[in-house]
């Protein structure tokens, strides 16, 4: 069964550094998402992306965050200048269509900011 | 906040018993989805119930939806130790391209 893959599985970075989290969504999916989960807590929506542009974003997704689909397969989340509070699991998800379509999640990237 | 709430926050039951968890939400929805998360892993979709449906089954899972009360429940029948996980409800809103997750219920099935 096709799956969403995320790399790396664990990223350690120093405060103030830029990080890029990578995702390969399922190939025929059109909608892409990033979510964040601080350890053991709720799953928070960051951003949705369709047709090469952001369709929705949350208050968390400020100017420090950006997303890109640089080619036909990858979907990336960039954090320009990481803060300690950015430490979390970051999950990428994709869905085939909008509405009445489940999300397929990757296994996440654990980001640790020191 | 648009976020839904699940209750209970945590649930421990003996293997073989039924596990029930509830989800309340605040805004109108297109559908309500339930996901499962094993520790340290991604979320796995379990079941989707549309706003015009009242009940749905999938194997040992039964989901109900009451749009008048803005609530849903997930029942796991004949629970197994392997059902130990966190379970999240998620609202697919009518007008926004985002799916909002609740806080989750941690379920522990005792062997």
Which secondary structure elements does this structure contain, and how are they paired or packed?
The complex is a heterodimer of chains A (about 110) and B (about 110).
Chain A: E1 5-7, E2 10-13, E3 19-24, E4 31-37, E5 43-50, E6 53-57, E7 65-68, E8 75-79, E9 88-95, E10 104-105, E11 109-113
Parallel strand pairs in A: 2-11
Antiparallel strand pairs in A: 1-3, 3-8, 4-5, 4-9, 5-6, 7-8, 9-10, 9-11
Chain B: E1 5-7, E2 10-14, E3 19-24, E4 29-37, E5 43-50, E6 55-58, E7 61-66, E8 71-76, E9 85-93, E10 99-101, E11 105-110
Q: Look at the structure and name the CATH superfamily of chain B.
A: Immunoglobulins
CATH fold field value of chain B? Immunoglobulin-like
- Give the name of the CATH superfamily of chain A: Immunoglobulins
Question: What class would the helix/strand composition of chain A place it in?
Answer: mainly beta
Alpha carbon gap, first and last residue of chain A? 37 Å
Which percent range fits the helix content of chain B? under 10%
Beginning-to-end CA distance, first to last residue of chain B: 38 Å
Please identify the top-level CATH class of chain B: Mainly Beta
Q: What is the β-strand count of chain A?
A: 11
**Average pLDDT reading of chain A:** 94
The CATH topology of chain A turns out to be Immunoglobulin-like
Order of helices and strands of chain B: EEEEEEEEEEE
Radius of gyration of chain A: 13 Å
- How many structural domains in the coordinates of chain B? 1
* Radius of gyration of chain B, whole Å: 13 Å
Q: Any idea what the shape of chain B is?
A: globular
- Structural class assignment of chain B: mainly beta
Q: What shape does the CA trace of chain A take?
A: globular
CATH architectural label of chain A: Sandwich
Counted beta strands of chain B: 11
